[in-house]
Each structure stands twice: as C-alpha cells, then as structure tokens.
Design goal:
There is one protein chain. The chain is built from 51 helices and 25 strands. Strand 11 (908-912), helix 34 (921-931) and strand 12 form a beta-alpha-beta unit. With 1439 residues, the chain is α/β, with parallel strands linked by helices. The strands form 7 sheets. A 5-stranded parallel β-sheet has the order 2-3-7-1-8, sandwiched between helices. A 5-stranded parallel β-sheet has the order 10-11-12-9-13, sandwiched between helices. It has a 4-stranded mixed β-sheet with strand order 16-18-22-17.
C-alpha cells in the first residue's frame, strides 16, 4: 500500500515475536544448568589469595612511610633557602630600581647635549673658524671646549682664539671627537677649570646664539656634559652595590637548585614505592571484588531463578498468544495498512463500519480466506498504552477518535494532512514536538527559505492553515519527487539538499475542505474534527473543574498517574526483555538484569495495588462527575449547532476557543444552589442562554428564529421529548401531489400535506375529521392567529410538535409565529424577547485577542457606540489613543502602523470596511494573531465589514471571524420606523429654509413616505421589487436639495420635472428592471401631484398628507395618524404579507432541514438513513423517466415545418438534454453509492439535493426556471413530457396549450405571430398579441381556434380575474394566486390594438419574477392601472 510499508510492518511484528520467545524461554531454561557448588569452591580459593595480598600491602605501607619522612625533612630545608633567596631578590630589585631612576634624571642632559651636537655641521663650524676676532662670548665657548676635552686633565694654557681655530682645523675630526667624548670619565681638573666659564652669565646658549649658531651649539654641549657627569657620579656607587648584590643572589640560587634536585630524586624514589603499593592494593581489591562477585553471583542466581519462576508463567502465556498471532499476522497487517492508508478522513462510525462491517467479512469470504484476528484492534498493533499515555499528557484529547488519529499520524509514510477546524490537533503537535518543530504558513515572508533549511537539516516542518489550493512550487516536495539519486529535491527553480530524516505535517482549519485529488493521493488525510462525544468529555472536565475542582484535580492526577504507571511498566519490561535476549554465556553476573527483574516485579506489584486503589477512587469520581454530564452534553450540542451556522451565512464563524470562554463565563454566572439537581438546572439554563445571547447578537434578524428553533428541536431530540419522524415531516413537508382538496378553505397543496400526515399513526383519520367537521376546521384555519387558538376536536390534545405539523399544512403563513410560540413554550420567553445587548456589556467580553466585528447593514452606523464607549473610558482622537482607519486603496499601511502602535501602547483601533481590501485580509489575520499574545491589556480592535452578496464572493478570513465577537446592526423594519428614520435626516431649519414653505413641506413629507415605502417594500420579495436595490438616505437628502432648488427657481411647482428627477435619476439610478422603473414612477405619480395641495390627500388608506406643521409636529403626526403596519401602506393587498410570510416559513424549514446532522438515523418506522432515502428516490426516478424523443422520427412525421412544429422540435431537444443529464447523473450516483465509482463533489451535491428534496444544480442549468421542491418539480417534469408526447403524436395544435409547459414560452407566443403573419402576409415587426380572457376552463374546449391559440395554466398574483365582469378585481383574502380562465391569444396589427382601460400585465415563469419575464398581456380594468402597478399584479406560469 502506498501509505504504509506493510512488509516492514510484517517483519517488525515477526521479529518482535521471535525476540520475545528467544529472550524469555531460551534464557530462562539456561538457568537450570548452573552449578552453585562450583561457584562456592571458587570463592574459597579467592579468600586464601586475598589474605596473602593483604600482608604484602602492609609491608609496603611501612617502607613508604620512611621515605615520605625523608622527603619532608629535605623539603623544610628547601623552603628555608627559598625564603632567603626571596629576600635577596627583593633587595636587588630595589637597588636596580634606584639606579634606573637616577640614570633617568641624567637622560635629559644627555639628550640636550646630543641635540646641541646635531646643530653643528661642517658648514657652520667652518663659518665659526672664519671669524677673525670673534666676540668674547664665542672665544669663551671654544676655550671651555678645549678645557673640557683636555686629555688626562692637562688643561692647555693657550686657550686663545688662534689655539681654538687650530683645534677645529679638521672640522670632521673635531665633530667626531665631540660625539665620541667619554662623558662618564671627565677629569677633576677639567671640571675645576670649567667653573669660571660656567659661572660667566654670558656663557648661555641663548646668548651665544646671537653671536654664532655653531658657538651656541658648543656652549649647550659643554653645559649639558657637565650636568650629565654630575648625575652619573652620584649613581656610580649604587651601581657597584647592585653588582655585588647580584653576585650574592646567584650564589643563593645555585644552593637552592641543588637542594631541589635532591628533593626530586627522593620524590622519584617515593613515587616508585607508592606505585608498587597501589598495584598491591589494586590486586588486593580485585581479589576481594572477585570474591564478593562470586558470593553475589550465588545470591543473584537464587534471586533470578526465583524471580523468573513467577514471570515464566505470564511470559509463557504471552508467547502462546504470539504463536497464535503468527497465523493471522498477514491478514492483521493488511487490515492495519488499510486502516492507516484510508480511514484517517472518516468519522468514528464509518471507520468502524468499514473495518468490521466490510473489510473483515470481505477477507473472510474470499476463495482463499485471509485469516484475521477476530477482535483485532489496530491500535494494539501500532502503538501501546505508554505511547497513548504520553500523547494524552501532551494535550491530546482522550477520546478513541483522537487516539486513532495520533496513531495514523505517527505511522503513516505519506505526509499527514490534518483537518483540524477546532485546532485541537495542532495544539497537541506543537506541544509534542516543541522546539524541534518549524511552523510556517504558505505565503508568509521567507517560508521557502525556512523549508529549504529544514530539508537540508532533516527537521520536522508544520505548514499550518492551508487553503484548498496549494502553492505549485511545493508540488515536488508533496510528491517526494527527488532527483540525483534521492539527494536533492526541486523547490521552484532551485535544487535543495534532501535529508531523508525530513518530515512534513500539513494542517488546515477548514471544516470540509475540497482538496485536489493529487494532493489527497500524496498525503494521508486525518480528520481531527472534534466529535460531539469527545467535546462532551472535555466540557465535562471543564464544568467539574469549576464546580468541584477537588474532584477534577484528583481525576487529572489519577489519569496522569495511570499514564505514568503504563509508561514505567512498559519501559521496565522492554529493558528486561532486551537484556535477556541480548545476554550471552554466563549472564548471572549481570546484576542490572536481576535488579531490573526485581524492580519490575516490585513496581508491577506496587502499580497493581495502586491501580486497584485508583479504580475504586475513579469509580467514585466518575459517579460524582456524571451528575454534571447533562450540562456538558447541552454545551456540546450547542457548540455543534453554532458551528453549523456557517451553512446559512459565511459570516457566521465561531471557534471552539471563543465558545469555551462563553461556556466558562456561563458557569460563573449560574445562580448557586445547595441542591445539586437545582444547581445543575441553573447551569444548563445559564449555559444555554449565554451561548444563545453570544450567538444571536452576531446573526441577522432573519436568521435568529432559524437558530433558536434549531436549538429547541435539537435539545428536545437529545432528551427524546419529540419524535424525529414528526420533525422530519415538519421540516421536509412531503405533501402528496396530484390531490384535490375536498374543502374550499384548503388549497390542493395543503390537502396534500394533510393526506401525508394522515398516513402516520399519530395523525390517523385527520383527513376524515377535517372533511367531517369542515365548519369548525374552517373557522380555525381562517382565524387571524390560528397558532394561538385551540385545535378542533381531540386534536387540541396533541403534542406541541404534532400541532405544528398540522398547522404547517393548513396555515403555512403563520409558521414563523407558531415556531416562535413553540420555542417560548419549550425554552422560555427570554429566548424570543428580541432584546439586544447594549454595547458596554459586549465590550466587557472583548480583549486584545478578541476583536469586536460589526457586520454592517445599509443605513446603520454601529461605530457610534464604539466612540461613545471610548469617550466614557478616555479613548478619543484628541487623546491620541483612538485610531479610526477607513480602509481603501493605500490605507493598509496606515492600518498596520495603527495596530502596531495600539498593541504596544494599549490604544483602540477601528478598521472600517475591511471588505474593500480583499488582498490585505490575510495579512490582517496574521497581524491580529500576532498581537493576540503579548500585547497591552487595554489594546482593542473594532472591525466593520459588509457581508458578501453571495457565499461565493465571501472574502473575510475564517480566523478573523472565529475569534471575534460578531455584532449585527440592522436598520429598523416597518413603515413607522422607516418613516421616522427618513424624517430624522432633516430638522426644523430644513423645513424653514424654503420661501415656498407649504409646497416644500408637503412634498418633503411625501418624499419621506415614498422613501420609506420603496425601502421597506423589499421585504415582500419579488412582489415588492423584481430585484433588490440599495436605496439609501443619500437618495432622499439629494432629492430634497433638488426640490429646494427647483421651488426657489420656479413660480409654479414643476411636478413633472421633479418626478422625472426623483424617479429616473435619484432613485431610478439604482433601478435596472423596466417593471421596477414603472413601479417607482407610479409611486411618484400618486404621491407628488397638484392635488396634494388642494385638500385631503391620502398617501395610504387612512393616512392623509399632514398640513403645515413644525419638525416635532410631523414626528408626532406619524405616531398618532399612521395606521398599523400592513401591506395597504405600500399599495399592496394583504395577501402579499401572507405570501411573504409563507416564503419566510418555507425558507426557515428548508434551512433547518439542511442543518440537520447528516448521520442522523432512526429506528423502525423512521425516515431511514440518508443513503437509504437517496437510493430509494434515485431508483424511483430512474424507473419513472421515459425514453428520450427520437427527433429524426418526429421530423419525418411532419410534412410542413410550421412555426408550431419548430417550437415542438425545440422543446423536444431541450427535454432530451435535460432527461439525459438526469439519467446520467442518477446512474453515476448509483454506482458511487455502491462503491463502484469514486464519489466526486458533483455526486455529493446531487446526493445532498435528493435528500433535501431540492432540484440539483446540474439539472437546473439544463431545465426551466422553477421554485418547486424536487418532488413537485419531478412530477411537473413528467407532466411536461406527457404534454409533449401528446402534441408530437400528430403535431396538431392542442385545443388549449399549457403555456407553462414550455422551456421557452416566448417561442410559442412568437410562433402565434409568425403563423398569422404568414397566413395574412402581414409584416411580423408590425404585429402584436391581443389577449382575451375567456370565461371557460380547459375542459370546455374541444378544438383549437382557427387563428392564434387558447392557453391555460396561468395564475394571477396581487389580484384576481373577475370572470363574470371580465376585468381585474381585488383579490380575495388568503387566495394568493387564483387560476386564470383559458386565455385566447391571437396576433393583430399593432395599430389596431386597443389599450384603453387596460393594465399592462407582465407575465413571468415563476414567483421569482425578474429574469423569468415572458411577455406583456393587456388585461381589462375599470380601476386606475396604477392601483395594480402598486399592488404588484402579474401573471405567473408556475406557483
């Protein structure tokens, strides 16, 4: 297998068995052949030898003592001599120092003399000689030189200038005699004769310089020579004394050296004696140790035999078991390799099913069965208790699934890829490997450099937070595509060293990733997703830790102690077996082996005793802990409901870490109680409500009931208070098709639901009771709030869920209210109160690692709350500790700088509209993660973003959303709130700014009403607007500015101009649909016209335009005069609200059905498992689908290809494309469910759609628009095929045509015009269709008309057709889409068309309207057509 080396595993297990057997049986048998008597004889001989060696050693000790004495005496003499030498040395050093200091004093005189000589040269001496009669100062200098240099102290009598010139006759010789002058031995006579000269004040170099430079130099030389000689004479006696001292020192040192040499000889002699003694002592000790070892061996032999005697029994049993395993080892290894290779990504249940239910039976039923251990547990062969214990101590959750995951991760050969949305796996990995782990993310700076270094060094790398696509540059690494004999691997264009020790772990926190097939082949996918049971155990530990910390600490310590015991026992036994198996020859001397055996036995006995004690304690602890399990189970359930909310909207992301914080705070907030049962109820209530509050503040209003209902139903399912079959009916509503209601107050669709309910035991005879007591049921069904009324007959005694099921059938429009009441009944009123938490409370839950994330809605600014809270706590712009960054192009750097500063200093940062910087969001996620630890405790981040219009365009990273407190802020709903809000954009000054006050105020108020109407009309869905438009307050304020400018500039009110500007530009600028443009224009024509100033003018029934009031007066008028919220305020019929509420209820149940746990299965009589349901539906569909149309045969039937025939061919071709895709995809899914094909994402989507009763995406692409559920859609498809078969039988036009049965109804309506045009030879582009509504039904027509066609199957929404009067009439209450009589459509010249008293009625394929537009029919009306425009009246081909 590609993931595990099964041969290696087999060899390893075989060797283990051999080693165990060889180590235990063979070695233990050897013990019986040992002779203890032989050991005793050896011991006696060793004792005699030991005695002799003791005597020898004693003699040597005495000799060594005498020699040591001698050395000590000589050493004392040497020490004394050494002291004398030291004193002499000190004296010599002092004298040396004094001489050097005195000589240093003479040095300047000598240098000065030398400097003086340096000034003399041949030139200036020659110049000196050239003097005829020099000044006396010069002649004195030369005379002094002659005296100083007088040889032998004989002073020349002639010291005249003439004599001096003669002495300097040879200039070079004279200079040389000066340089070589013996300055240390100047004669006493010379010094005396010099005194007169020296005492002469003019005998100074400075003075002589003025007479002659050469003479000055000679003067300086004489003076300094005399000075030097004076100092030298003082030093000379000291130098002689120093010389004598040095002689004395040398003599003392010679004496000391001879003494030391003598000591060295004595030491050498002593060393030899000592070595001899040490050898004797060593021999004695060796002999003694051998004797002791022999004695010890005898004792050990007895202990080892005794110790192994008891172990042999246990080990022999183990070997017997191992022998049995040898026969099943191949099969076991095969299963284990498959387990590692394939099961990592599956859930616990499916792993067990594959292993025990499919693989084992398959191996058993082969022609040559492969034997497998019946009770094989893969974990026992891949790991042991010690490893598992170590993992759990490192933070791995203790549940079975986590242990299996860790085992696969540590044993797989492919790179492991952890799917870990709750980050529990990665936490364990980081703890397990610690500093040895290199953690990187794809795309982070320098991650490839880190990878390259790790590859070369053979390190372990963790790539965390993978997305669904991988960086292609890592492809060769994932596929292990090594080059150059496996020594290198390419990363990009670079060849990197590849160390075989390198390991890679991949990690993603995506909950349901769809990786590329090649990535799945290269990696071992391991599903670390936390399970409900696993989380329940973790939360139980948390709740007990808070409620009974003593218990949990004891439990934790016990677990660690037990884990420690397992590790210790395993280590000891492994060491013992290893020593036994590797021992050779006489191993009785191995004390460690015997001691290991004894320690193992002793430890095992101690551990066994402690284990027994622990078991008793653990049982008591578990009993006490189990009291709190209901609280943990409730919390686990709530977490999984919360984590599934992302299926509703991608903004709803919640992390386990954030949930844990809420969970702990809920426990702290729960009211204390002495009674444990009551305390438990308080805990459950606190946990449920805290999680509810935390979750709902981040949900849009439209999703809050979905979440609350899901919580309620799942809680009741867990406590088995409701029947899953009844819940399935409520959510799925599998109504019977093609039934006709026998009572007029229920539609066919409602009756189909009643019939489906009646087939269930609890609702038997419901259909008969409704028929039999029609009057009572009619009163109940037509009551305003049937959910509050008592049900007729005994049905009032049914359970709350059963009553909901009945109400779902008879009044689907009231289900939102009914579900809200159900929640209130089961959980309490606080779950439906709708009170939002104030921002200050939410702020307390935030922190440096927990940002606050505002999910924006149009027209709402939640950041005002942040500014208000900041001001209260001292965080403002003026204080420079409040940073507000509105993101857009170029603002990313500003935001990063603000975050870095704020994290360091403890500031607040607002990041507005982060959805505008999609590419930067991953950097923001990393930045927030970086600052989540180690930041200032006051650091806070507030983020705002608009939700994406569709899940595909969602860009906000999961990490940001999961760790944030999410808050939704939505605009108020209803006409009352919207009208106030529109008026809030102005003030009293606005009302007074125009000179034409009356006209300005009237039109301004009408504009506010218009703005509120068009904004709130969106809630009615397609009947309100074909498409949703982002009308905002800017449209209103600009319109009022335009109104002011036009009124100021005109004498008359330019109504037409104003309506055009408002309807076509300000508001019309948003509108893209022509019918919506007509609606907007009609509103303005009704609200802004001259009549508004001429008397009472109604903006809505019962709401006249107010007169001239002040600003507060208008607000008061709205409160006093505006009628209660109803569709009439928007020009719509009350049925629009019923339709809107019905659609809301349908969406509620559809969403809840999609959120149901996928592995839910029920017992007998239930809805069956997911696969069973899908398989049955798939087979039924394949059976009912007819063969495709043979287009070639059909064409051969037709003599003339009329426009109608062409339409028939086109429809058949389209039907063939659709049915072939249905058959292909169903057959493919069938093979996938059987395991004959790999399940693809398309097949998975198809399976989900079949189970959820929705039309699959691949079918929708090839089909016609439809809003029906799959069951209804498929029945409709079969009807369409039958209609086509009937028409293509002879290609004659049916008496009445089912217009809704066409893929492209426009083609048939165009064919009517083409046929008439050909027949009458009229130009096609000058023709139009005339629509006449008959008074007959389909059954009343036997043949088609001569021209044109009769069409049936249309429905009217927003009004009804009065067949008697032949006009559009007001709809009847609760009759949402009444059927139209047969309509006669014929083609006429466009100029003959009469459009007086008609309403241009759009025809759509479905209730979604918008892009399903087909045609426009002109229908007769007595009312103003604007009434039907505002009512959203249209014809529909399907309902």
């Amino acid at each position: 297998m590609p993931n595990v080396n099964s041969f290696s595993l087999y060899d390893c297990k075989s060797c283990s068995l051999f080693w165990y057997k060889n180590g235990i049986i063979n070695k233990s048998k050897c013990l019986t052949s040992l002779l203890v008597d032989e050991l005793k004889a050896r011991l006696a001989a060793q004792e005699v030898e030991l005695k002799q060696k003791n005597e020898d050693a004693d003699k040597l000790i005495r000799v060594v003592g005498v020699e040591t004495e001698k050395v000590s005496r000589e050493k004392a003499i040497a020490d004394e001599e050494e002291q004398k030498v030291a004193l002499i040395t000190q004296e010599v050093e002092q004298k040396q120092k004094d001489c050097e200091e005195d000589l240093a004093k003479a040095e300047p005189a000598l240098e000065a003399a030398q400097a003086a000589l340096n000034t003399l040269n041949k030139k200036n001496l020659t110049e000196l000689r050239s003097f005829g009669s020099p000044p006396s100062a010069v002649s004195n200098v030369t005379a002094a030189v002659m005296v100083l240099m007088a040889p032998g102290g004989k002073i020349p009598k002639d010291r005249s200038w003439k004599a001096a010139k003669a002495a300097m006759a040879r200039v070079d010789g004279f200079l040389d005699s000066l340089i070589k002058f013996d300055k240390e031995n100047i004669h006493e006579n010379c010094l005396k004769a010099l005194q007169p000269y020296l005492q002469d004040p003019k005998f100074k170099p400075e003075f002589v310089t003025t007479k002659s430079l050469a003479a000055a130099g000679l003067c300086s030389w004489v003076v300094n020579m005399v000075r030097f000689h004076a100092v030298f004479c003082e030093v000379q006696p000291k130098r002689q004394a120093l010389s004598r001292a040095n002689t004395e020192l040398a003599a003392a040192q010679d004496k000391l050296a001879s003494i030391k040499a003598k000591i060295a000889r004595l030491n050498e002699n002593l060393r030899k004696l000592t070595a001899k003694f040490e050898k004797a002592t060593s021999d004695k000790l060796k002999c003694q140790q051998e004797a002791e070892a022999t004695a010890c061996t005898i004792a050990l032999a007895n202990r080892l035999v005794g110790g192994l005697a008891s172990e042999n029994v246990r080990w022999a049993e183990a070997v017997k078991n191992f022998k049995q395993q040898q026969s099943t080892l191949c099969g076991d290894v095969l299963l284990i390799t498959a387990f590692i290779s394939y099961l990592g990504y599956f859930t616990k249940k499916y792993r067990q099913e594959l292993l025990d239910g499919i693989w084992k039976p398959y191996l058993h039923q082969l022609k040559v069965p492969i034997p497998v251990t019946p009770s094989l547990d893969p974990l026992t062969m891949l790991t042991d208790d010690a490893d598992v214990a170590a993992w759990q101590n490192e933070g791995l959750p203790a549940d079975r699934m986590s242990t299996e995951n860790a085992t696969i991760l540590t044993n797989c050969e492919r790179w492991p890829l952890m799917v870990d949305p709750q980050l529990q796996g990665i936490k364990w990995i980081k703890t397990k490997y610690g500093e040895d782990l290199r953690v990187i993310r794809i795309g982070q700076k320098g991650y490839l450099d880190t990878m390259e270094r790790a590859l070369a060094a053979g390190e372990l790398v963790l790539i965390e937070n993978l997305e669904e696509s991988m960086d292609p540059v890592l492809g060769p690494l994932l596929g292990r595509e090594t080059i150059k004999k496996g020594r290198y691997i390419k990363i990009g264009d670079k060849e990197c060293d590849f160390n075989p020790a390198f390991r890679l772990i991949l990690h993603t926190k995506l909950a349901n990733p769809h990786f590329q097939p090649e990535l799945q082949a290269q990696c071992t996918l391991i599903n670390f997703t936390v399970t409900r049971d696993g989380l329940e155990d973790q939360l139980l530990a948390a709740v007990v830790n808070m409620e009974r910390p003593d218990l949990e600490e004891l439990k934790s310590n016990l677990t660690k102690q037990q884990n420690g015991f397992k590790i210790t026992l395993k280590t000891l036994e492994d060491n013992l077996l290893s020593r036994l198996s590797s021992a050779s020859g006489n191993f009785l001397g191995d004390t460690a082996l015997v001691e290991n055996l004894e320690i193992t036995k002793q430890t095992a006995a101690e551990i066994e005793e402690k284990v027994q004690e622990s078991k008793v304690t653990e049982t008591k602890i578990n009993e006490a802990r189990e009291h709190y399990r209901p609280a943990a189970a409730r919390a686990s359930l709530l977490y999984f409901i919360m984590s599934d909310l992302h299926a509703i909207h991608p903004m709803y992301q919640f992390s386990l870490k954030a949930f844990s914080v809420v969970f702990h705070k809920a426990i702290e907030r729960a009211p204390p109680d002495e009674s444990l049962p009551q305390r438990l109820l308080n805990l459950i209530d606190s946990i449920t409500f805290s999680v509810f509050q935390y979750t709902t503040r981040g949900l849009f209003e439209c999703d809050k009931l979905t979440y609350t209902a899901q919580v309620t139903f799942q809680i009741l399912l867990m406590s088995k208070e409701i029947n899953i079959v009844e819940l399935d009916f409520l959510l799925r509503y599998p109504a019977q098709t093609r039934v006709t209601s026998p009572v007029e107050f229920l539609s066919n669709h409602s009756w189909g639901g009643i019939k489906a309910l009646s087939s269930m035991e609890e609702f038997r005879n419901l259909d008969r009771d409704i028929e039999g007591s029609a009057k009572r049921w009619k009163k109940f069904v037509e009551s305003e709030c049937p959910e509050k009324e008592k049900f007729p007959q005994e049905w009032k005694n049914k359970s709350a869920l059963q009553r909901l099921c009945i109400l779902r059938a008879v009044r689907p429009d009231r289900m939102s209210y009914a579900v809200r009441d159900f929640v209130e009944e089961k959980l309490g009123s606080k779950y439906v109160a709708g009170r939002s938490l104030d921002f200050a409370t939410t702020f307390e839950e935030s922190g440096p690692a927990t940002p606050v994330f505002f999910i924006l809605s149009p027209g709402v600014d939640p950041l005002k709350d942040v500014e208000k809270q900041g001001k209260k706590l001292g965080y403002t712009f003026n204080n420079r500790n409040f940073h507000n960054v509105s993101l857009g192009q170029g603002q990313e750097v500003v935001a990063e700088q603000a975050l870095d500063l704020a994290a360091k200093e403890g500031h607040w940062v607002i990041l507005q509209n982060i959805h505008l910087v999609a590419k930067w969001l991953s950097s923001l996620e990393k930045k927030l993660e970086q600052h989540s630890e180690g930041s200032h405790q006051d650091f806070r981040v507030f983020i705002s973003a608009e939700p994406a219009p569709s899940p595909e365009s969602h860009i906000i990273p999961q990490g940001i959303l999961e760790n944030s407190i999410k808050i939704t802020s939505e605009a108020p709903t209803g006409m009352h709130a919207n009208l106030h809000k529109a008026l809030d954009n102005f003030n009293q000054d606005t009302l007074e700014m125009c000179t034409r006050e009356n006209e300005f105020k009237s039109i301004l108020f009408a504009l506010c009403y218009f703005h509120a109407a068009v904004a709130e009309r969106r809630k009615f869905g397609p009947q309100g607007w074909n498409r949703s438009y982002p009308f905002n307050t800017g449209d209103l304020t600009i319109s009022v500015n335009v109104l002011y400018n036009y009124l100021e500039a005109s004498t008359k009110v330019p109504y037409d101009d104003l309506r055009y500007l408002f309807g076509e530009i300000m508001y019309g600028g948003h509108i893209t649909d022509d019918w919506d443009r007509r609606l907007c224009k009609t509103y303005l024509e009704e609200f802004i016209k001259p009549e508004m100033l001429e008397g009472e003018f109604l903006l809505a029934p019962g709401f006249p335009l107010p007169g001239n009031l002040d600003y507060n007066g208008y607000h008061q008028y709205i409160d006093d005069a505006l009628p209660p919220e109803s569709p009439y305020l928007y020009g719509l019929h009350p049925n629009a609200e019923i339709g809107f509420l019905t659609q809301t209820s349908e969406k509620l149940f559809r969403t809840m059905l999609e959120m149901q746990p996928r592995d839910t299965s029920v017992g007998e009589g239930g809805v069956g498992t997911r696969d069973e349901t899908v398989k049955a539906l798939l087979e039924e569909m394949l059976e009912k689908l007819m063969d495709e149309f043979n287009i070639t045969e059909l064409m051969a039937k037709v003599e003339e290809r009329t426009p109608y025939a062409v339409v028939a061919f086109q429809e058949c071709e389209r039907m063939n494309i659709l049915t072939s895709e249905i058959k292909r995809s169903l057959k493919e899914l069938d093979l996938g469910l059987k395991g004959e094909l790999t399940m693809t994402s398309d097949m998975e989507n198809l399976q989900n759609a079949l189970f959820l009763d929705t039309v699959p995406e691949s079918w929708i692409k090839r089909a016609y628009p439809s809003t029906a559920s799959l069951g209804t859609w498929f029945a409709d498809l079969l009807t369409r095929i039958k209609e086509l078969e009937a028409w293509t039988g002879d290609f004659s036009l049916p008496s009445t045509v089912w217009l809704a049965g066409f893929f492209n109804p426009q083609s048939f309506l165009t064919a009517i015009m083409q046929s008439t045009a050909r027949k009458n030879k009229w130009p096609l582009d000058k023709m139009t269709l005339q629509c006449d509504v008959t008074k007959k039904n389909r059954e009343d027509f036997a043949s088609p008309p001569r021209e044109g066609a009769y069409v049936h199957g249309l429905f009217m929404e927003g009004a009804r057709w009065d067949a008697q009067a032949g006009i559009i009439a007001e709809a009847r209450l609760k009759e949402l889409t009444p059927a139209m009589p047969v309509i006669f459509i014929k083609a006429i010249p466009a100029d003959k068309q009469d459009i007086r008293s008609t309403y241009r009625c759009p025809v759509y394929k479905t209730r979604q309207r918008g892009p399903t537009y087909v045609w426009t029919f002109n229908l007769k009306t007595r009312e103003n057509p604007s009434k039907w425009v505002l009512a959203g009246v249209a014809l529909l081909l399907q309902i």
